[in-house]
Design a protein that fits this description.
There is one protein chain. The protein is built from nine helices and ten strands. By secondary structure, the chain is of the alpha/beta class. It has two domains: 20-261, SGNH hydrolase (Rossmann fold, 3-Layer(aba) Sandwich), CATH 3.40.50; 262-316, no CATH class. Helix 2 runs parallel beside helix 4 (157-174). The two termini are 42 Å apart.
């Protein structure tokens, strides 16, 4: 077999349908989160939008813990659009009120959900950060503002480690049953060249290794290594040759399932996927006898699953 297999022992952790999950970080955490919600898991996906660097992710968790409510003073206007340096452009709006509603509604929901979260999936994308010169703060998104407004630099392992040590000690006290699964995004950042990309990824990997050594509730899933070694072929990259292809994302997701899900949970997930296909079916002839029978059969399967697994009652 022309492949280097990554050995991933089955984890003692078990993500179940009763579990609550939150994902924070790069596009990879977005991909995994979507996979989970599509399979009817309880997952809050990137409540600030896609985040790339460890500092922005840490700051976002702090804001969730504070149940921070944003005001107009936390926003800025550029080209008639109101935006936040803490959020992606998904939260931007042509009015300050519209922007604040998006931000605060999501933040309130995430703050409440976080109190019951069992698994926090954090995906680091890059060790490079942008600091706004005026405030000296690391921003989550530059929103295409002029480059001279920011200082760009690479974080050190010690910086990442010290910040997360303080955060994890706080989380230990507040949420003793919370487990954190770190990953490093397999997406390559070649803006500065191959060497700088490797230095950035190495910084992230070293920081996570040090964090994991000090905290029992911290775990690591090798998404980055799977992409680079098991899927070491450009067939498994998108057309930009930087992002994993859909096939690669599906494969990494399957390895994630093997690691953190029981056979019973995976079987239920397959049953729900079949049910979802039936519920999502759009017939050519909605009034036909065949479709009415199909619809009745699908509803029967849904009722049977809910009766067997009552915790699914609010998932449809």
């Amino acid at each position: 077999m022309f492949q280097t297999q990554i050995d991933i022992p089955h984890s003692s952790l078990e993500i179940m349908y009763e579990s609550r999950v939150m994902t924070l970080g790069s596009c990879f955490s977005d991909n995994i989160g979507r996979k989970m919600t599509n399979a009817y898991f309880q997952a809050d996906i990137n409540p600030f939008g896609v985040l790339y660097n460890p500092v922005s992710i840490l700051n976002s968790i702090e804001l969730i813990l504070q149940n921070k409510q944003f005001t107009t003073e936390d926003l800025f206007e550029n080209n008639s659009v109101w935006q936040s340096f803490s959020h992606s452009s998904l939260f931007s709006d042509i009015s300050a009120g519209g922007c604040l509603n998006k931000i605060n509604d999501h933040l309130l929901a995430s703050s409440l959900a976080f109190q019951q979260t069992n698994f926090l999936l954090i995906t680091f994308g890059t060790a490079w950060v942008f600091e706004e010169k005026e405030s000296g703060s690391v921003v989550s998104n530059c929103h295409k503002l002029p480059a001279n407004r920011f200082v760009r630099r690479r974080l050190s392992v010690d910086e990442i480690m010290s910040g997360y040590k303080a955060l994890l000690l706080k989380l230990q006290a507040l949420l003793p049953n919370l487990h954190i699964i770190f990953t490093v995004s397999p997406i390559r950042h070649f803006k500065d060249g191959a060497h700088e990309n490797n230095l950035s990824k190495s910084t992230l990997l070293l920081a996570i290794a040090e964090i994991q050594e000090q905290f029992q509730q911290v775990h690591y899933f090798p998404a980055y290594e799977i992409q680079l070694d098991e899927l070491r072929d450009y067939r498994f990259y998108a057309s930009d040759m930087m992002h994993p292809s859909d096939v690669a994302v599906d494969y990494i997701w399957s390895r994630f399932l093997e690691t953190y899900f029981s056979p019973e949970t995976i079987q239920l997930m397959k049953e729900l996927e079949q049910l979802n296909a039936g519920l999502s079916h759009r017939p050519l002839h909605p009034g036909s006898v065949e479709f009415l029978k199909f619809k009745e059969s699908t509803e029967k399967k849904k009722t049977e699953l809910v009766n067997k697994y009552p915790f699914l009652s609010n998932r449809f």
